[in-house]
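G., the chain you wanted modeled:
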Amino acid sequence: MAANPVLKGGLRLLNAFASSGLAERYGVEEQARELVERAARLGVDLLARGGDRGASEPSAPKRRFDLTPTESQELLRTTMRRFALEVLREAADDADVALGPPAEVLEMAGELGLVELAIPEAHGGAGEERSPVTTALLAEELGYGDMALGAALLAPVSVAHLALDHGTDDQRRDLLARLRAEPFVAASAALLEPRPLFDPRRPSTRARRLGDVYRLRGEKSLVILAERARFFLVSAKLGKETRLFVVERDRPGVSVRPEPTMGLRGAGLGRLELSDVEVPAGALLGEADGFDHQRVVDLGRLAWSALAVGQGRAVLDYVKTYCNDRVAFGEPITNRQSVAFMIADIAIELEGMRLLGWRAAARAERGDPFTREAHLCAVQSAAYAMKIGTDGVQLLGGSGYIREHPVERWYRHLRAAGVMEGGLSL
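Predicted structure as tokens:
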């Protein structure tokens, strides 16, 4: 039986991490070797059993409800968690000040093969199957390091997913080849409109067919890695439908400018302006019909929710340590019920967000309708991600307001869970 594709990707990531010099640089060389050895033992065990844990004999009993990640998924989570802690967490403050991810971080992510793992082997990548559940687990771990940098690293992965899900054969070959060559410079998805609620008459981005070309006009807001991308996947109204178009950065009429925000500053957000931009007919992603725009929106909601869960976990871990170490009136402040209950509420809210996201991702992976579940997940994340950030700052008191503690930055990131729509896709 063929080796599990996620396990193969995990082995590639681990070997790249162990041999790239990153492990030695961050003092985790021994742990990296242990992970590689564990992965090798796991691979031998799986091959001896004829597959992954989920591939049981037909007569074996099946559990109805089990949220435990598979061995291969847990292997990938462990790899990403270490990368998030040792690389993303350390670079997050500089990225926040510089309004974009450091080139060194993008280079390390490229060495780990994050984008290659999203591309099937048939197209030159390291994966074989699309798994929204696995991507959600990876997004959570990246968010645990830093939500802004996690979003930046997921942007080209999302473009790969969109090309695989909706592109024609020729488009997949072209777009995926470009992503493999320059994963964190190649592309970003532009889906969010800058239309304010108080001005509903402001037109959305629109496309018109003019002979052999399409003409696009409009604006896109909060585009991740906007100033680095060489092309964009732009959503635009074509008649009554919303479609995606491949728009090259150097097309006449395309302009990009920075769009600094309160949070997610490290994601390199920008405003994309399209002034009568003409693109060839082949720039329309997918066939003339059959495009499922709602699925794109729903998967984007799940991606943002997974990042928020990861950042919320970081808040929880930080405030637990801080409040246990903070002594007032001769005892840790966690001995006070008001403090202990607030920390417990954060843990409860995180668990609800995580379970809603996993449920929706599992339905997406099975091919079941999941719009309702994705909407519930987005509403839950919008409400409680902001509350978790607020409570985190409150638990630190005056310290939560200064840059010396990362909770101040995480609070600003988590506010984006109720604002961001699109740009990412599980």
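The first helix runs from residue 5 to 19.

Shout if anything looks off.
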